[in-house]
Amino acid sequence: MAPREGTYGLLAEFDTPGDLIRAAQQARLDGWRRMDCYTPYPVEEVAEAIGFHRNKVPLVTLIGGLMGLAAMFLLEVWISVWAYPLNIGGRPTYSWPAFIVPAYEWTILFAGLSAAFGMLALNGLPALYHPLFNAPNFCDGATTDKFFLCLEALDPKFDLVEAKKYLQSFQPVSVVEVEY
Question: Across residues 20-30, what is the average pLDDT?
Answer without folding.
Answer: 96
